[in-house]
Structure formats: structure tokens, C-alpha cells
Design brief:
Strands 8, 9, 10, 11, 12, 13 and 14 form a seven-stranded antiparallel sheet that branches. Strands 1-2-3-7-6 form a five-stranded antiparallel sheet. The chain has two domains: about 70 residues, Phosphorylase Kinase, domain 1, CATH 3.30.200; about 140 residues, 2-Layer Sandwich (D-amino Acid Aminotransferase, Chain A, domain 1), CATH 3.30.470. With about 230 residues, the chain is α+β, with helices and mostly antiparallel strands. A hairpin with a 2-residue loop joins strand 6 and strand 7. Helix 1 packs parallel to helix 6. The chain is globular, with a radius of gyration of 17 Å. The structure holds adenosine-5'-diphosphate and magnesium ion. Belongs to the SAICAR synthetase family. It catalyses: 5-amino-1-(5-phospho-D-ribosyl)imidazole-4-carboxylate + L-aspartate + ATP = (2S)-2-[5-amino-1-(5-phospho-beta-D-ribosyl)imidazole-4-carboxamido]succinate + ADP + phosphate + 2 H(+). Keywords: ATP-binding, Ligase, Nucleotide-binding, Purine biosynthesis.
Length: about 230
């Protein structure tokens, strides 16, 4: 089957005008693809975790691109025009944010913080402010407001969901797309795109284990899946 697009973590296959089949790979990249590797079983985990979280969010009234799971590594989604933005919600300082401001990882923030970066690998996904998003015409003002409000709502839902499972949601990245005048939550929500810390031990249970060579990467992904499905 001919590919529509192959990215760093997923392959998109066309299914006509309206839907796509997304295949989740085991390939992992970090630091703007300077670090590369394989996390065996990651594609299965990310497909199943994303599917479960999209279902949860739909139940709570968040509109997403998710249609159905097709196999262990594949889901069907509505085809959207992806806004060229990575939308990040942070509860505590970690990763690039901690580095940028000279903060210790885990420093709490006074309030949840929404950040945007321009989705552009060649430029290294630079941070972009809301006024620049509007000035460059990357999103209409109403779309930007909807994206921000939805991201905060998604954060409330996911933070509570993971807390019930002994995982602290530290930050996450979302992508949104437009379709028939609607803004839909798209892409994936997985241990590749969230920071999850075990509440009992403080250990990272996400892609930071790969980024920082902490070991136990596969086991951490499997444990996140177990807790997400285990309810
Ligand atoms: N519903 C959708 N319709 C169209 N494109 C999508 C949809 N969901 C996700 N995408 C895009 O699919 C691409 C493939 O995913 P991924 O491998 O993560 O790529 P990347 O290397 O760009 O991060 C991403 O660029 C993402 O924006
Ligand atoms: Mg991606």
C-alpha cells in the first residue's frame, strides 16, 4: 500500500478523502532526531495508549480525529489539515523548559502553562509566541483560542486519569488539525509525547528513559500501557 507520509514515529496511509490509517513504528528519535534508536513494542503501546486516551477524551466531550483501532499497531483517523504548531502543556519544569530557564526538573509551576512551538524539523521546532502565530497566519484567532482552551481541558482530564493510576502527568504535547471548519485533536498521546512520573518512586515512565539512557525503556512503556488499560 502506498504511503502518504512517513514521519519519525508513524506512517500514514491514505484511505480516500476522509480517513487515514496510521501505523505506529518502534523507531524512536530524540533531540530533533540527533538521537535514534528502537524501542521494541513501542508502536503497539503508543497505538493502544493513544486509542484509549482519545476514547476517554471523546467521552468527556473533546473532539478528536480518532475513529477506531484497526490492529495492534494501527488506527483509523479522520484526515485533517494539521496546524503547524506543537502545543505543550506544563505542570512542572522539565526538559527544554527547565534548561531554558535554568530550573531544576520537577520545579512546580504556579499555574498550568500552555506553550507553542512551530512544527518545523529543519528549524528545530522553535518556541513561538501567540502574537507570532497570528502575525504569521499559522492559525486564526478563534482557532488559537479553541486550541488553548481544549489543551487546558485535556490536561485536566488526563492529569486526573493518570493520578488514579499512580502516574504524575508532568507535561505533554498535542497537535491539532482542521476539518470542515472544526478543530480536532489529532496525532498521538503516548509516552513519546508526555512526561509521566511514577508517584511512588519519582521514576520517569516515558521517552525520557530513552533520551537520558536510563535503561528499562521497554518495561516502562509496557507498564504505562498496563496501567492505562488496567483502569
Ligand atoms: N489526522 C491526521 N491527519 C493528517 N495528518 C496527521 C493526522 N494526525 C497526525 N498527522 C501527522 O502525521 C505525521 C506523522 O506522524 P509522526 O511520525 O509523528 O511524524 P513527525 O516525524 O512529523 O513527528 C505528523 O506530522 C502528524 O502531524
Ligand atoms: Mg510526531
Amino acid at each position: 500500500m502506498e504511503k502518504l507520509y512517513e514521519g519519525k514515529a508513524k506512517v500514514l496511509y491514505p484511505e480516500g478523502e476522509d480517513t487515514l490509517r496510521v501505523y505506529f513504528k518502534d523507531e524512536a528519535t530524540a533531540f530533533n532526531a540527533q538521537k535514534r534508536g528502537i524501542i521494541p513494542g513501542k508502536g503497539v503501546v503508543n497505538n493502544k495508549v493513544s486509542a484509549a486516551l482519545f476514547r476517554l477524551l471523546e467521552e468527556r466531550g473533546v473532539k478528536t480525529h480518532f475513529v477506531e483501532e484497526l490492529s495492534e499497531r494501527e488506527m483509523r483517523v479522520k484526515r485533517v489539515r494539521i496546524l503547524p504548531l506543537e502545543v505543550i502543556l506544563r505542570y512542572k519544569a522539565a526538559g527544554s523548559f527547565a534548561k531554558r530557564y535554568g530550573l531544576k526538573e520537577g520545579t512546580p509551576l504556579k499555574a498550568p502553562l500552555v506553550e507553542f512551538s512551530l512544527k518545523n524539523d529543519a528549524l528545530g521546532d522553535p518556541l513561538i509566541c501567540e502574537d507570532a502565530v497570528l502575525a504569521l497566519g499559522l492559525a486564526r484567532p478563534e482557532a488559537l483560542e479553541a486550541v488553548k482552551a481544549t489543551t487546558l481541558r485535556v490536561g485536566e482530564i488526563l492529569k486526573a486519569f493518570f493520578a488514579e493510576r499512580g502516574l504524575e502527568l508532568v507535561d505533554f504535547k498535542l497537535e491539532f488539525g482542521e476539518r470542515e471548519g472544526e478543530i480536532l485533536l489529532a496525532d498521538e498521546i503516548s509516552p513519546d509525547t508526555m512526561r509521566l512520573w511514577d508517584m511512588a518512586t519519582g521514576e520517569p515512565m516515558d521517552k525520557d528513559r530513552f533520551r537520558k539512557d536510563l535503561g528499562g525503556v521497554e518495561a516502562a512503556y509496557q507498564e504505562v500501557l498496563r496501567r492505562v488499560l488496567g483502569g
